[in-house]
Amino acid sequence: MKKLLINILLMFSIASLSPMVLAGPLDGKKLVMIIKSADSSEAGMGLSLAYSAVKKGAQVTVVLGANAALYPAKKGAQRIFAAKNKIPRDMLKDIITKGGTVYLCGLCAKWQKLQQSDLIDGVEIVTSIKIWNKLYEDGAKSLTF
Predict the structure, then answer these.
(1) Which three-class secondary structure state does DSSP give residue 124?
(2) At 112, which CATH number?
(3) Could you say which residues of the chain have pLDDT below 70?
């Protein structure tokens, strides 16, 4: 009887833990990663974190602006982020492939003379309102690089 009770308790404890074991630690979390640095080391760290988060189930939106506005351009030289041995453009493609969203600030696109056709697939030129809406979604967290 004692052994049966221990087995039943063990089953219930395993069953109660299974959602934590099966779900990724970031499932459903909302992350807005703002990338504005032209420095590939700094921007690369932010993009690397965004990729890790989207891979673990977070709803990730990368917002590119200021000096990072050229990262989603189809053409143009970019410095390699040494830790991943990739350029920012390719890191953005990886984030999009995993289900992340990438926005380019509309004012920054205009400043850099970029149009939608100049960008890699999956990047959207947006207004500040769309960025604010992401930043103020319930539970959203943001990081800036």
Answers:
(1) strand
(2) 3.40.1260.10
(3) 1-24
> For position 133, what pLDDT does the model report?
97
> What Rg value do the Cα atoms of the chain yield, rounded?
20
- Looking at this protein, which amino acid is placed at residue 126? V
Residue 14 lies in a domain: no
Query: How many domains is the chain built from?
Result: 1
> Using CA atoms, how far apart are residues 135 and 132, in angstroms rounded to an integer?
5
Its domain, for residue 41, covers 25-144
Q: What pLDDT was estimated at residue 20?
A: 35
Tell me the whole-structure pTM to 2 decimals.
0.82
CA nearest to 104, candidates 128, 127, 133, 125: 125
pLDDT score, position 13: 38
